[in-house]
Write a structure and sequence with these properties.
Number of domains: 1
Oligomer: single chain
Strand content: 15-25%
Number of helices: 2
Order of helices and strands: EEEEHEH
Distance between the termini: 43 Å
Helix content: 10-25%
């Protein structure tokens, strides 16, 4: 079975200004669906994972810095460069 490639129309919204390496966290908007694509820090602490419970198939848990909320259009009035 050949899988059909999905092409997303992503609009960069922002990166974590407090990131020690300048690479995470990051948020994009899929301009076709209105969904957000998030890049964050892997949550791998066993105690925290046990408290969260099972992760559904096909999903992943990430840590998302609070200051990243500023990049969501619902918070910043629609600007991608807040």
């Amino acid at each position: 079975m050949i899988e059909k490639e999905t092409v997303m129309a992503l609009r960069f919204l922002g990166k974590d200004p407090n990131s020690p390496d300048g690479e995470s966290a990051t948020v994009w908007e899929d301009t076709e669906t209105g969904e957000y694509v998030l890049q964050g820090y892997v949550r791998n602490d066993p105690a925290a994972l046990a408290e969260l419970g099972p992760t559904p198939e096909g999903e992943i848990r990430i840590r998302w810095p609070r200051q990243m909320m500023q990049f969501f259009p619902e918070v910043n009035g629609g600007r991608a460069d807040a």
